[in-house]
Amino acid sequence: MEDFPGKDIAPLKEKRQPWFLAAVAFVGIIISLLQFVLVRQQVIGFVTHQMEQAVSGAVRQTQAHINQAQEMMSAVVDIYAARSDMSPEIFNRLVKAVDFGRNSLSAVSASVVQDDLLVNEHVIIDKTKWSSPLSEPKKFPDAKENVLNAVKKNRPQLEVINTDDESRTSWLVLSYPVESSNSQRIVFNGFVSLREVFSGFLDLEESGILQQLVVRRETEDPGLPFFEVKNKTFSLNFLDLHETNAKIYLHDQIWNVRIEASPRTKFPLLEFLPHIICGIGLLLTWALVMYLAMTRAKSAEAARMAATMQRVNEELSRRISDEGRMARALRDSERKYRAIFENAGIGICQIANSGEWLNANRTAARILGYDSPQDLLISQPDLHGMLFADAKDREEWFSKLKVESQRDYETRFLTRSGRTIWVNMNGHAVRDFNGQVQYFECTFYDITERRNAERALQQAIKQAEFANRSKSEFLANMSHELRTPLNAIIGFSEIIKNQMFGPVGQPQYIEYACDIYDSGQLLLSLINDILDMSKIEAGKRELAESEMEIADIVQSVVRLVSVRAKAGRVRLNIFVSRDLPRVRVEEKAMKQILTNLMTNAIKFTPEGGTVTLSAQLAERGNMAIVVEDTGIGMSPEDIPIALTPFGQIENVMSRKNQGTGLGLPLTKALVELHGGELKLESQPGKGTVVTVLIPAFRVIKKIA
User: Fold this and answer.
1) Predicted TM-score of the model (pTM)
2) 519 belongs to a structural domain
3) Final residue of a structural domain among 503, 535, 567
4) Angle between helices 663-673 and 507-538 (to 10 degrees)
5) Distance CA 42, CA 564 (A)
6) In terms of residue numbers, what domain contains 640?
7) Alpha carbons 529 and 527: distance in angstroms, whole number
8) What is the CATH number of the domain that holds 135?
């Protein structure tokens, strides 16, 4: 489906002024909370008043019940005091004649006390339907103690006792002492069940209003309650529990009563009324906000649609303008690309799978000898098999392109005139969304001159190598040819010099013979050095290796050069330990290396100088042999000259000590033939230090 103008444009947001709706909601919530608080206060006030009335009634009922019990006991005592010689039978009938139905006494008894002992107890009235302290008085020592206290103090005593049976009934005992006519001490005891005393509270507990009742004495151990009721059905309410404290008076005792009441049962709906009112207010607020929002949304719908259409028109205008700019940018980009394509310094072309050239630039046409790209595309040399000089190269090139991009592929092309040129090609395959090859994009440039130069360079290298081999072979042959006459010259001159066959007539002949002998020895040494260098350069010098003690080699070299050092007044210092490990080298080559180094050091060290030879193990297991002198030295620029064959440095000492210039180069070649390294450090006037490093694989480690 085509995109319609403005399809992707977000609709214009309505300016609803959300702060107005938020303000309405805020005011509604505040009003609802105020209603909740006000209703809750009214409910709490009403419930508190009702609870206080219920609790006050229970307290008054309890106080009246106790007062009635006290009045009854006072009446019994008054009856006994009023009698003169009234018989017990008549006294009992008078007491029974009192209406017990309207008071709270459950039982009455009379106890006779003699010498602080309870000698007799007589039950006057017992209307209890359960076991009372009168049935088994011995099990209730608290009642007996209360009787004795009444006699001792000669005033009424009140005590709360518990029966020792399964019912665990609590009783209030009122003991009133009287003095009989025959001086006997008699105590009248009234028994009241505490459940009857607190019957008003128990009615509240059964109705669910009373949650907890605790009664404590004010003076005697107020921390321990003697009567306590807890409602097990207590649960958390929305209204707080109502707590009331009251006092009940009994003669000289005061009872503290703490009551906790709850309106959960008596007023089940009042505790939810504030929340219901608040919920109704919030619901009305939400309904008002939603109504205002819907009203404003409907009223603004037309404005939104108009604004959206306006934005669509603006977007259409913008897109038309953008498309015009994009078209101009594409034309400019195509023009620039075409200019780069046509004026590139390398040949650029596009080739189809069939081999047909789809496009090419002027450089590609010029490299292949065509006047223009059009002429090249008309001729299609590759399509007719007239481009690649070797058909195998063409097949290899396109097969590699189908797999991956190619770089620096060198091959031969045939120009329009049939001339062969070398080109360097780069290319890659252009594929569609399915990965199929559409065409190949290739670049190439002419490298014929570079290839010709490389070919000429290779030819020159071959010629130089051939000339070097010819020189080496010539020197080797000449050295062998010169040795034969030199041996005769040296031998005959030695005979004449030593006058082996008798004295020579003229002493001058002996001097001439010595000169001939020295010249022959010098020439023979030069020929030997040239022959060794030729063998090394030709790769024909082989080492006859053996395991040697480096100290033995140094000792034999020192014997050879010590005469020359002594003649030149040069001091030799040798620091070579016998504890050094053995080395695998050629003895002759190693002696020649050290002899050349020591001879050079002695030769270029003035009288009074020092030449030092030392050997030690270096890092990485190499062995370092160091020859150091205090001679004339050389500048760092002269070191490469001294290491080249026949290289000589001009100075006073070198002119005084003529040489062939092969000593150091031959020494360096022999060291490198062993796989080692020769380092030379020198400064003019301070001497020279030559270090020979024998590689670690030629150092034989000692076995501990």
Assistant:
1) 0.35
2) yes
3) 535
4) 40
5) 135
6) 544-698
7) 5
8) 3.30.450
